[in-house]
Design goal:
single chain; 208 residues; alpha/beta; Double Stranded RNA Binding Domain; 5-stranded mixed beta sheet; 4 helices; 25% strand; elongated
């Protein structure tokens, strides 16, 4: 009886450890999505603000974001005066970096990086509900003079789709749905000769 009892006591912690080990792969911390408050049912998008040194980018990104919200369908898009919440997008950086060169030092590959900041305004409280800085779109490409290449404009077109999806996902699925890029990482990628956009001024928390 004593031996049987000893074996039973020994088996309990071993069994418990085995169960924890088996369950370890499934026990993962998954924070609840921070979705929009229930009183926000209709959204508006302000025209994208362009603070880069590249003109004309804001119109295309604005249209792509609206198209992506409509495609997603979870929140109707309405004029700002009829909305409960407003998405404010600011283009902050446009960085084109040559990444490969040929024997005569002509660029044969590029990396295009576009950064945006997002602010969400709760119109019922007339306050910024959240801010997400440095949402990053990255597209590597080779010039059209090489087989399978593309122009800088074609690379931008691909990035508008990437950024629009990230902006909509961050808005409707909450914090953690997308991740921004650190300023340190971006700064380390830019050669000293690259031109950067001027510093971004903070958005007025009381825009109305």
């Amino acid at each position: 009886m004593r031996n049987e009892r000893s074996l039973r006591l020994l088996a309990c912690p071993v069994l418990a450890a085995a169960m924890l080990a088996c369950a370890g792969e499934d026990v993962t911390y998954r924070p609840a999505p921070q979705i929009l408050p229930q009183h926000i049912a209709k959204l508006a998008l302000r025209p994208v603000v362009n603070k880069t040194q590249q003109p004309g980018l804001e119109d295309k990104l604005t249209r792509r974001i609206i198209d992506e919200f409509l495609r997603d369908g979870r929140y109707p898009m309405v004029p700002e005066s009829d909305s409960d919440g407003v998405v404010v997008v600011t283009l902050t950086r446009y960085i084109l970096i040559p990444t490969m060169y040929d024997t005569v030092m002509a660029p044969t590959a590029y990396k295009l990086i576009i950064l945006v900041n997002i602010d969400f305004i709760d119109r019922t409280k007339n306050a910024i509900l959240w801010t997400e800085p440095n949402i990053e779109g990255v597209q590597s490409y080779i010039p059209p003079t090489l087989q399978g290449g593309m122009t800088e404009e074609q690379a931008r077109e691909l990035l508008w789709d990437v950024l629009a999806r990230q902006i909509v996902k961050r808005t409707v699925e909450g914090f953690g749905a997308v991740s921004g890029s650190s300023q340190r990482k971006i700064s380390s990628e830019i050669p000293p000769s690259e031109t950067q956009a001027p510093p971004v001024k903070p958005i007025n928390p009381n825009p109305y």
